[in-house]
Structures are given as structure tokens and as C-alpha cells.
Amino acid sequence: MKHLARQLPAIHELQKHQRFEEIMGAYHLTSQQLTAMLKHVVASVREQLLAGDDEISLAPGNIDGELFHQLEAYARKEASVKLQHVINGTGTVLHTNLGRARLSGQAQKKVIEAASSYTNLEYQLHSGKRGSRHDLIEAALREVTGAEAAIVVNNNAAAVYFVLSALARGKEVIVSRGELVEIGGSFRVSSIMEESGAVLKEVGTTNKTHLYDYEQAITAETALLMKVHTSNFKMIGFTEAVPAKELKPLADANNLPLFEDLGSGVLYDFKQKGIGSEPTVREAIAQGADLVSFSGDKLLGGPQAGIIAGKKKWIDRLKKHQLARVLRVDKMTLAALEATLAHYRDEEEALTEIPTIRAVLLTQEEVFERIERFQIALDPAWKTDVTESFSQVGGGTMPEVQLPTYVLLLTHPIWSANELQRELRNGSPAVISRIVNEQVALDFRTIEENEQSALHQRLQECIKERSVK
Ligand SMILES: *Cc1c(COP(=O)(O)O)cnc(C)c1O
């Protein structure tokens, strides 16, 4: 191997190669950029050869071919746009690290339309006068939530901050100690409260809070009663919380708004399919909350957004507040949200069109059928197995729900499970997998039919490249 190190072609020779031109064109690189990459690749191959690394297979007749193969892989990695398509083989439907909800076909279309043309974002077509972006979406939100009024902001964390800041700055907000949650590390009720300038008044204990706890805490300084949906954990045993329905008369008697942070905010009732016990937004509003807030990209299945819905009196105050401008969403978000909400007019349509709902409701048998179809075209060099497992809803929602699924277990002819997992992650599109029984596992709940050919290709690359690793 060491003698090969001396035979490596000079950089200026390689630059004349047709492949050099081709790679430059394919990845939109300048000659300088690609030369820098080429130097890096040649140096690294030389080092490996000198170290006697026999992992590297360099046929004396095909040194150029191998160098350009490595150069292309390097260029692809470096030149790729950083935010990219990832195949989610984890089975976690709302994977926060992988961007949560995927949009429906109609929502995608509307985003492209809004992005590529002028829109009536703040323009009333009937009068020819200036309009409000908030009005565009409000009717649709009223329809699906049953609320009097609604406003959309950047995300649910912003929504909570907005409500607290606009309605309770410098005043007290009463929250049960059992609901002082932290979600995903970056959202803590107590920290958002502090940022907003509202003063947190904790009542009750971790496991039990009674109506009289709230009652005794109300003073002239109180601005708001707040409930927080404990999205990502479940308390069991000797526990008690006061439901919104029971808090409502107390709030009314003291002329205080009751605000509930619902977290996920479901518009489709998953309970009817035996999945979870999440109240719908409509139910939460019917229970008496004056204001609720929830995410657009959790179980609603739309774009990242925070929706505040409730009594017109309070929403109007929010609309007039300076923060409405600070936290406002752009036209692409509104386009995606409007199209997603439209699916909910017809429950059947919501089930078939919204990818998040479809993925949560996918039965174990349907996942199995997806795997079976996928396996037909799989290279026989793979050793495979199919086993039962569970998928998660994710995104901090329905932590107690385990969705029965099947996973495809893959064993590479040479690589360990960790090596294969790393290799799958580092190609394009990246494939994110789990390890089950020390094998790479792909949960087809979150792998769409239209991703299967790309996945086949990635697996084929792994078989072809096995000697190179
Ligand atoms: C997820 C969640 C949030 C944060 O929502 P984002 O849309 O991620 O900002 C806030 N509160 C609760 C209860 C949540 O579950």
C-alpha cells in the first residue's frame, strides 16, 4: 500500500481530468473551491496509505476513479444546502429535531403560491383599502375551534409570552404547582412568565391543587388564572387538579380571564379512535377557558405557529398590542395554516390529507404492508428481519401513548449497526434510524410511499460502498 502513496497523481494533473469539470458543474463550485477540496481528499488518502490502513482499497489501475469518487462525496457534503430532506425512520411522528409536522399537498401548494407571487396579505380586495393579516385567518380559526376570535403568532411559546405580557405585566398570574412544566428544555412556564414581566403566584402542591387554593390566592394584584396542559408527562396516584370548568365561575366572580396553554392543540378528536385522552381545542373552549393557546405544528399538522383563540374582548386587546407586530407570522405560514385548517371542514378529508393525523392513525397492519412492499426490491445482500415495536407521537404530546408498529431490521454484510446508522445519516437524503436488538431499525410509520425509492437508493449505495469503508 505504501508504494501507492508515491503514485498518487499531482493536483494539477487531476485538475485537467474531465471529472473535475463535471463535479464543479454539478455542485456549483468554483475551480478554487474544488481544488481546495481535492487537496484535502488527496492528503487524506495519502495519509491512510502511509499509515498502512488496509480499510482503503485502491486498485493501482483506478487511482483516479477512487479519488474522484471521494472528491464527489466530499463536495456533495460541503456544497449541500444545510437544511435538507431527511427520511425519518424513527417512527416518532412529531419529531421536534426533524421539524415536527409535514404539510399536506394542498398546504405545500399554497406556500409556493404565496412565496412566488404578490398576495392580498394586508389588502382588502373588495374595498381596495389596507387590510389586516390577522383577519385573513380568523374566520377559519373560529370555525374549527368554536371560539369568538383568534390571532396567530410565531409559535406557542410566543403565544404564551404574548398573553402573559399583554394581560398580566406587573401583575400576578395564579398557576398550580402541578402545572409548572418544562417542555423540551427550552420552554419553562416559570421562565416565560419571568420574561413577560408577569409575576408567578404558585398555588397548591406538586400532586394536589384545590379550588380553594386558587380562591385564597386571588388579590387586587391578580390579573389572570392560568392552566397549563402537562403535555409531556403524566402524574398518577394521589393527584388532583382543578379543571377549567370548575375554575371558570371563580374567574368570572373576580372578573379575571382564565387562560389555558393547551400545548398541542388537537382539532381532530383522537379519543374516538382510542388514542390518548387529549381534549380538543373546541372542548377546552366549551369548558370555559376565556383564552387558549396551542401550536400549529404539533397534532394540528400545520406550519410552525402559535394560535390564541377565545373571547373577542381579550383577543381585541392582543390585536392592538405592540407585540402583535413583533410576533406576527409571514405569508407562507398563513398560507400553510389556512390550507391545513380547510381540511378540517370535513373530518374524512382531515384524516386522508393531513400527514400527521394519517401517520398517528396508521394501523400496525398498514405499517407491515409498507415494509412488505419495500422489501420486494431490496438487494439480497441485506439480512433483514421484521419485528413488532412501538412508535411515539412525539413533540411532547401524548407521552403515554404507544402506537403499535413494525420495524424493518437491517444487517449490513460487513458494517456494524453503528457504522450503518452513521452511514445512513451522512448521505443524501439523510436517513435517521433507531437501534433495536443491536440492529438498525426503520419504522415505516414515518416513511412515506414517495420516499421509498430514495431509501432504496441509499441502501443500494451502502451495499456498493461496503468495500470502501
Ligand atoms: C409544545 C408546548 C409549548 C411550546 O410550543 P411551541 O409551538 O413549540 O413554541 C408550550 N406549552 C406547552 C404545554 C407545549 O406542549
3D structure, described in words:
A hairpin with a 2-residue loop joins strand 14 and strand 15. The protein is built from 20 helices and 15 strands. The protein folds into three domains: 2-79, no CATH class; 86-98 and 358-468, Aspartate Aminotransferase, domain 1; 105-353, Aspartate Aminotransferase, domain 2 (3-Layer(aba) Sandwich), CATH 3.40.640.10. With 469 residues, it is an alpha/beta fold. It has helices at 2-7, 11-15, 18-26, 31-50, 63-79, 105-116, 133-145, 156-168, 189-196, 211-217, 244-253, 281-286, 312-320, 323-326, 331-343, 347-353, 355-361, 364-376, 417-425, 452-464; strands spanning 86-88, 149-153, 172-176, 182-183, 187-188, 199-203, 222-228, 258-263, 291-295, 306-310, 383-391, 403-411, 430-432, 434-436, 439-443. Helix 4 (31-50) packs across helix 5 (63-79) and helix 8 crosses helix 9. The strands form four sheets. Strands 2-10-9-8-7-3-6 form a seven-stranded mixed beta sheet, with helices on both faces. Strands 11-12-15-14 form a four-stranded antiparallel beta sheet. It has a two-stranded parallel ribbon with strand order 1-13. The structure holds pyridoxal-5'-phosphate. Pyridoxal-5'-phosphate is lined by residues 155-157, 160, 183, 187, 228-229, 231, 261, 263-264, 295, 306, 396.
